[in-house]
Amino acid sequence: MDDLTKMALDAGFEAAQKLDCSTIVLYPDVRAACELNRCGRYGKSWSCPPACGSLSECEDRVRKYSSGLIVQTVGKLEDEFDSEGMTETARKHERNFRTLSKRLRVDFPDMLPIGTGSCSYCDRCAWPDAPCRNPREAATPMEAFGMMVHEICRLNGMEYYHGKGTIAFTGCFLLAAGILI
Ligand code: SF4
């Protein structure tokens, strides 16, 4: 196991894999789904569309990187209606993501964290009245970048579906340019 993967597992994630950024495709259809506002966060956060920038601006940000890390928190559910289990796993994923984000920032000060769901760093997002309070900690969701999460998992050797009675939350960190780390 390499140091980055170990660092992710130490932060609490159940799975982690190196991410080859050349496998990332940003799909307009995935991004357009944000506008349907099924999550209720469209136009409510600096981390989500439209405030997170156009798809072409997101593409410019992503293409600065060649290497990264993809991470997953996997939880067990009693049944498909186990909302408590889902919430608990989502909270754990958020904690894991913040822990690893802080740690990675030491070695990769210019990294780009890309999260799962709208940024929840602050109790109430500062958008649109004031600038983002924690731009280094704020993470735009993978879907808002137009990323097809299951495709990125598959192309980088990570399971997307962990079987009946499980739920998985996926995020990634784009770390470095130029060389594959
Ligand atoms: S860090 Fe705070 S202000 Fe910035 S996007 Fe997240 S919730 Fe909003």
What would a concise description of this structure say?
The chain has 181 residues and is of the alpha+beta class. It has helices at residues 3-10, 28-33, 55-62, 83-107, 149-155; strands spanning 15-20, 67-76, 112-115, 140-141, 166-176. The protein is 30% helix and 18% strand.
Keywords:
181 residues; alpha+beta; 5-stranded mixed sheet; 5 helices
Structure overview:
The protein has 181 residues and is of the alpha+beta class. 30% of the residues lie in helices and 18% in strands. The longest helix has 25 residues, at 83-107. It is globular. The chain starts with a helix and ends in a 5-residue tail after the last strand. The model has no long low-confidence stretch (mean pLDDT 95). Iron/sulfur cluster binds at residues 45-47, 119, 121-122, 125-127, 132-134, 137-138.
Q: Nearest-angstrom radius of gyration?
A: 16 Å
Note the main sheet: 5 strands, mixed
Total number of β-strand segments?
A: 5
For the largest sheet, list the strands in their spatial order.
1-2-5-3-4
**N-to-C span:** 13 Å
Low-confidence stretches: none
Q: State the shape.
A: globular
Instruction: Please work out how many helical segments DSSP would assign.
Output: 5
Relative strand content: 15-25%
**What is the helix content?**
25-40%
Bound molecules: iron/sulfur cluster
Report mean pLDDT, rounded to a whole number: 95
Q: What is the N-to-C order of secondary-structure elements (H for helix, E for strand)?
A: HEHHEHEEHE
Structural class comes to: alpha+beta
